[in-house]
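Human:
I keep going back and forth on a fold encoding question. Comparing notes only helps if you start from a blank page. Show me how you would write down a chain together with its backbone fold. Write it directly below this note and I will take it from there.

Assistant:
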Amino acid sequence: MYLQEKNVWNKSHSVFSDPRFFSRTSRKSLNIVGIMIALMLPWLVFTATFALTSFWMRFSRPVLADSLMGIVFAGFVLAPMILMANGAKKKIADPQSYQPTWYIFLSICCLLAFIFGYLVGEHNYRGFMHPYYSLMHLAHYSNVDTNVAVGQQIMDAGRVTFKNTTALDLGHSMGFKNSDVFCVAPIITKASLDGRSITELPSVDFWAVGTNCCSGVQADFHCKGFADPNANGAIRLMGDQEAARALYRLAVQQAEATYKLTATHPLFFEWVHDAEESTWEFAQDGYIGFISAICTYFVVQIFFTIVAMLAFSKMVDGA
């Protein structure tokens, strides 16, 4: 009986003392943790980088936003790369004891997440959020009469709501061709003309603009909002459109020469149904783009993680 109990103890002791037993259980638990980290960490890096690149902090506190991005890069991109490098050293030093880890996968995924988060966030910022923040930062003028107000008085305008009788004067529109066609049309409050032609106004300073929406050889302006009879709002040119300001100015100069107009301080706007509504659309597109991007990236990261799991399982089984 004593000998049987001793044999049982020796067998059980030999099982628990076998290092392969502990390596299997620990590897199993570490794999679960590794899978969760490999799934969530790159996605969080993408989300944080996208948010820091795209939203209000970038506009109002750019230095702080850049500093936080540096922390994200150092803490969640460089750190996995250092762990990957240490793993590579161990493999070189002792190839027999080396086991595949998540570090190489994690470092690559975090680096890609940071790069794509920055690129997509930059696109979202330039296309939507920067115009929105800029318009909200500028002044909003209401009930503007274009025959009374002049451009110099509202040079800080971002959003303008004109009087209800204000419309585009398509008959005095013009286009300037420089690869693209840069189109302009006067914004005129008709009720206060008092029978006068716009050629008799001291200065025609409010212009609706658009690109490639007129022929450039005749008055045929058909840019955004031109056919809306209830439109009486305008938003200032923002974002990439600001680079076209000089070309719109040349189109106005052509209109001055052709129609004998005077435009002392021309301001360029996008003609819209409602200035507040159109401004908010920039923010909506930016927020929707952010949510869509982080959801899409999460699905992509799930796919990459599953592929890595299958690859690592084959490597372990093969070993």
